[in-house]
Amino acid sequence: MAAPRGEFSSRFGFLMAASGSAVGLGNIWGFPTNAASNGGAAFLIAYLILAFALAYPALMAELIIGRYARSNAVTALRKISAGERSRAAAMLVGFIGIITVSLILSFYAIVSGWMIAFFFDPLARIINFDSASRWLTTDAVLRNSIFVVLFMLVTVIIIRAGVKDGIEKWASRLMPSLIIILILLIIYVLTLPGAMEGLRAYLVPDFSRIVEPALVVDAMGQAFFSLSLGVGTMLIYGSYISKEENLPTIGGLVALLDIGIAVLAGLLILPAMYVALANGVEIFDAEGGLIAGPGLIVSVLPALFNTMGSIGVFVALAFFLLMTIASLTSSISMLEVPVAYGVEHHGLERKNAAIIVGSIITIISLIVVFYFDPLFDMVVTFTTEVSQPLLGFSFCIFVAWIWRRNDILQEIKQGSPEAENGLFWKVWPFYVKYICPLAILVVYFQ
Ligand code: PFF
């Protein structure tokens, strides 16, 4: 017998949870560095266009299916499919989504573990515990394993508590804190010498780059990853939205929050890098590009904080707290996908499902920690560059080509009775039917 389903208790709760899923390492680390290496504001413009024109319609597809079906991705996609073959395809897409999101969580947990380790480092230094500080900041299998387990433990504890008492409660606390910390850090960093140079690198567009296929592919990948699309997170969060909510509006708010925080993060990361440069820290790699990979977070920024004197310790604490919060609100949304499936499909109790699925993902994560070099990049590339766009494509196909148009409209009209005459209903169906799948395929085969 299935347990009663959870529901977000307020619009604010949903907004914090969904934007918490969307806002993650992808916004604070991925977006600014992608922008820096792809022509600054030229990337920003391409990103804004793609995020609103492609990612927002795909986000709406997931939210609408989720709220209509009130269930996990596998069951939901089957529910909107009438034929034998489309139901089989629904099963397959739902499953691949669950596997993909679990694999994303397995690498996300490793990177998030680094963030926690670097958060503890300034604390160790405050109490002059130098050997601990060295241990925390030195890449090693043992350190990475411990922090993966710690991060997954916290994720499991939140998911065990359920939609309202776990996801909503924590997202509503953590997301406002994240925004406050981010703004305070931006204000501080912009007062430092070198920051304006960074702003220029970020905001002055190199328009010659805007038609480069690499830029467009990067911008679309970034938009899909950032809005957590294709893997059923937004679908499952959509399934917990009240029928009284206006879906196009709250979907739009989630997209705006996600994009807004990515743009804000650019105002922190790039100026910080140029402040680091002004303080004598190397910020360019051997090819002359800005250091964008893990080196940025685990060496360039910590080196910058070290040059700031005593305030640097607090800046480091705030920065890694920001990163940890961003990771956590995303990881809970990822774990919720397989957990909801286990609860609804296999009749597991939520608490047990969270522990079982969380343990399996932790083990996969530990395997990646142990065989980091061959596995890490492979898992990242497979999930984010292969699987996620194809799943996003499949969701659009299900909504626009398989699901009955009238059912979609009836679902949207709940909470927005005048939707039939609104702009959203005039534009969106055409978009998900033709533009989104085509654009995803074109960019994918680039
Ligand atoms: N949107 C998150 C980020 O930008 O970091 C990553 C993410 C979360 C991807 C949830 C997929 C997902 F299901």
TrEMBL record:
> Does NADP show up as a keyword for this record?
no
A GO-annotated cellular component = membrane
Where do transmembrane segments lie in this chain? 12-32, 44-69, 90-120, 140-162, 174-195, 215-238, 250-276, 312-333, 353-372, 379-403, 423-445
Q: Where found? A: Membrane
PROSITE patterns noted in UniProt: NA_NEUROTRAN_SYMP_3
The protein's topology relative to the membrane is:
Multi-pass membrane protein
Q: Which Pfam families match?
A: SNF
Keywords on this record? Answer: Membrane, Transmembrane, Transmembrane helix, Transport
Task: Just give the chief location class.
Answer: membrane
| Database matches in PANTHER family | TRANSPORTER
- The protein's name: Sodium-dependent transporter
**What species is given as this protein's source?**
OM182 bacterium MED-G28
